[in-house]
Specification:
Order of helices and strands: HEEEEEEEE
Shape: globular
CATH superfamily: Jelly Rolls
Helix content: under 10%
Distance between the termini: 16 Å
Largest sheet: 8 strands, mixed
Radius of gyration: 14 Å
CATH topology: Jelly Rolls
Number of domains: 1
Structural class: mainly beta
Number of helices: 1
Length: 123
């Protein structure tokens, strides 16, 4: 068992949109990531995702049945994106996030592009 200091872990990297493995819980990873700017619209066929905001303000856009909407997530709050829901995270300024998601989750879901991280780094 280990006590993990989130601020110390987040200080170990500076790149955006590149999740790092900070721990494991059953069949899920605890990931830390920094966001800035817009990500890409995507969805995950088989995985739900939990986004816990540690610092900053996260805007999460969703598209369901042709309708686009947005939720704002503040520090100390989280949002769960159910599998199959198309979404796009947006950070107007640097946002620090902890993700809890199955180990099979690819950061860009059904989209492959320059932001896809195939091999996650452990911190």
């Amino acid at each position: 068992m280990e006590v993990v200091n989130l601020a110390q872990k987040l200080a170990q990297f500076s790149e955006y949109w590149s999740p790092k493995i900070a721990g494991e819980v059953n069949d899920s990873y605890v990931k830390l990531v920094k966001f800035k700017g817009e990500f890409v619209w995507h969805h995950h066929e088989a995985e739900d995702e939990l986004f816990l905001v540690i610092r900053g303000t996260l805007r999460m856009k969703f598209r369901e049945h042709g309708v686009e909407r947005e939720k704002t997530v503040l520090p100390g709050e989280y949002i769960i994106v159910p599998r199959g829901v198309e979404h796009m995270p947006i950070a107007d300024e640097e946002v620090h996030v902890m993700l809890l998601e199955p180990k099979s989750t690819l950061n860009t879901g059904n989209v492959r592009n320059e932001r896809t991280v195939e091999q996650l780094q452990r911190i």
